[in-house]
């Protein structure tokens, strides 16, 4: 599956890293208006024993701090020290957005729509180009961590292409509560990895500008299981045993608000609900009207809108319609 073994020096950002060495380098291609350099820290840890190279990233969207917390914990707990091979961690890819608590690059673009980038394009496109040219070619497997956008809280999930058998096998090993078959988005990091035949697992956990320790732990357990499968997990760590297998979701849809008002949710993320079960109530602010929001079908709730107020037509629950 991931059977490459690299025994030679690793060349990254103008430096050579030998087997058994660890380094912190900076990816730096742009400056603020003040001419201050904005550096993206890159952590490289190599075992003395040759093996595959795993690239672990988060923060492609600068406000998705739960993904950053997952990679931070990988570094803090030294999960990134491999028994063999190399682990490269980039906790905050979009440092620009992180500084501004924003999803976007300072040029207003979504970095995850600019891959593989252009040497002469926008700031986001140039950054994507540099990343794809300098860092991505080293990877034999990519693990990328995201959250839901805005107030939408995503159940812990892995997203893969349905016809990618390698990704499916790795997703089964990662064993998030849910695995969704989702087509690749044009200009996304995942699409670029696919075109370069680099397997990638994209994790979605939680919502933007929010930390959730429980959902972080689910992702960390998945990382450990994948590293263990590749014989890269240090023997100091126990291999987390999942309580149940990941639910593979083949189809899903959004339940939308039929009325505007305050959203009072009655169920929890990951819950299995039945058709016509009450999921929430929508009330006006004057206490005169209240409307029930009911499940359209039997299925799992894989996203909940945490916004206190919603408009008619807003997506409020993501529910599975078909599973394997």
Automatic annotation (TrEMBL):
UniProt name for this protein: Succinylglutamate desuccinylase
Top-level taxon: Bacteria
Lineage, top ranks: Bacteria, Pseudomonadati, Bacteroidota, Flavobacteriia, Flavobacteriales
Tagged with keyword Metal-binding: yes
Annotated InterPro entries: AstE_AspA_cat (IPR055438), N-alpha-Ac-DABA-like (IPR043795), N-alpha-Ac-DABA_deacetylase (IPR053138)
UniProt GO MF annotations: hydrolase activity, acting on carbon-nitrogen (but not peptide) bonds, in linear amides; hydrolase activity, acting on ester bonds; metal ion binding
Protein keywords: Hydrolase, Metal-binding, Zinc
Keyword Zinc listed: yes
Domain Succinylglutamate desuccinylase/Aspartoacylase catalytic: 50-230
Entry cofactors: Zn(2+)
């Amino acid at each position: 599956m991931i059977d490459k073994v690299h025994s030679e020096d690793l060349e990254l950002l103008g430096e050579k890293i030998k087997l058994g060495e660890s380094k912190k380098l900076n990816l730096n291609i742009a400056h603020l208006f003040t001419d201050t350099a904005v550096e993206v820290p890159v952590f490289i840890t190599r075992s003395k024993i040759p093996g595959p190279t795993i690239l672990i990233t988060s923060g492609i969207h600068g406000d998705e701090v739960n993904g950053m917390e997952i990679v931070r914990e990988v570094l803090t707990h030294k999960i990134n020290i491999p028994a063999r091979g190399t682990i490269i961690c980039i906790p905050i890819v979009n440092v620009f957005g992180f500084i501004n608590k924003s999803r976007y690059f300072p040029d207003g673009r979504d970095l995850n729509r600019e891959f593989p980038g252009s040497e002469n394009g926008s700031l986001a496109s140039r950054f994507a180009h540099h990343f794809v040219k300098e860092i991505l070619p080293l990877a034999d497997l990519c693990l990328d961590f995201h959250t839901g956008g805005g107030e939408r809280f995503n159940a812990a999930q892995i997203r893969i292409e349905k016809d990618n058998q390698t990704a499916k096998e790795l997703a089964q090993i990662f064993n998030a509560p849910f695995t969704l078959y989702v087509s690749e988005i044009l200009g996304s990091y995942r699409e670029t990895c696919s075109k370069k035949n680099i397997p990638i697992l994209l994790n979605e956990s939680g919502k933007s500008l929010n930390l959730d320790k429980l959902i972080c732990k689910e992702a960390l357990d998945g990382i450990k299981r994948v590293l263990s499968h590749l014989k890269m997990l240090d023997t100091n760590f126990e291999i987390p045993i999942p309580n149940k297998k990941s639910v593979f979701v083949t189809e899903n849809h959004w339940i939308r608000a039929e009325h505007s008002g305050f959203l009072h949710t009655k169920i929890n993320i990951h819950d299995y609900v039945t058709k016509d079960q009450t999921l929430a109530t929508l009330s006006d602010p004057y206490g005169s009207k209240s409307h029930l929001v009911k499940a359209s079908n039997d299925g799992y709730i894989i996203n909940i809108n945490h916004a206190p107020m919603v408009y008619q037509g807003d997506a409020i629950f993501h529910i599975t319609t078909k599973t394997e």
